# Entry
Amino acid sequence: MATSTSSKLNKAVKQQYMDLPQGDKVQAMYIWIDGSGEGLRCKTRTLDSEPKTIEELPEWNFDGSSTFQSEGSNSDMFLIPAAMFRDPFRRDPNKLVLCEVLKYNRKPAETNLRNTCKQIMSMVDNNHPWFGMEQEYTLLGTDGHPFGWPSNGFPGPQGPYYCGVGADKAYGRDVVEAHYRACLYAGVDICGTNAEVMPAQWEFQVGPCEGINMGDHLWIARFILHRVCEDFGVVVSFDPKPITGNWNGAGCHTNFSTKEMREEGGLKIIEESIDRLAKRHQYHIRAYDPKGGLDNARRLTGRHETSSIDEFSAGVANRGASIRIPRAVGQDKKGYFEDRRPSANCDPYIVTEALVRTCLLKEEGEEPTDYRK
# Structure
């Protein structure tokens, strides 16, 4: 099993230094999304005291020419603190700081999708949109081979691995447990985890989160997972179809509700929203992976618990549909629905924004409306 060289360094020696007192100083790790729209970058600065609010954190900058975000001749980019969490790696009073990225002219970088999402969410505050996202992922060795799979072959076919228990069914549970506890410590609204259908594939769920918090909490949960995997010497992949053939892909099923949907008779509002989503299928497909639908085309084939990328469908308790209404929601006549189309590597900011645009702002057509005009 190929694990990283760094993971083999003596962790007990490192801990001697991590146990040293740090006085009144605080380490703040600034985290941002790079120009790929999928990768995360980070760097740390020292603060003189523990920040209590996001407003107390200073702006910072970085070299955008090294993160696919600018040219070398004009490379300074601004980091604007947006959300703050406890640091589960350095522990209190140290912080993780999720940032928005602005270009040299103070306009949002191309992959700063939080900026517009925040604007759209502010327009629907009174509707109290809640989201819950189910983040699937695959654990790999540093050689790109799925963790725990035979080096020259495949494990047994899918069937025993989903929510499985035992060394021959659950591959990499240590990573999962460490990630879960680290998220709880950080203050991430993680609400569950389970082994998935393909061996070495897992899922964690974040939510319910209201508005912009959904994207903030999912991105920080992803960052924490990358860091935990780094410590264990393995790699996490959010690729929507990491292994070709008769193996499940990886999605990021998104559960959505509004105040009206959660109240008596809310099923009618849910059905109206699904009708709107049916008329805007291609817009959502483009928004649901960072390559405008190309990544999802490998996953949404109509097989392996997915719908076809070319067709919209909806149904009660149907995991082969674009939109699933949970059976309990159908019985209670209120609640939420699940959009099963977003890919594992989606940007939660644009996924949640797209749902609000179509279901609450009642936009139509294949392009989002520009409300700044």
Observations:
- The chain has a mean pLDDT of 96.
- DSSP finds ten helices and 13 strands in the chain.
- The first strand starts at residue 26 and ends at 33.
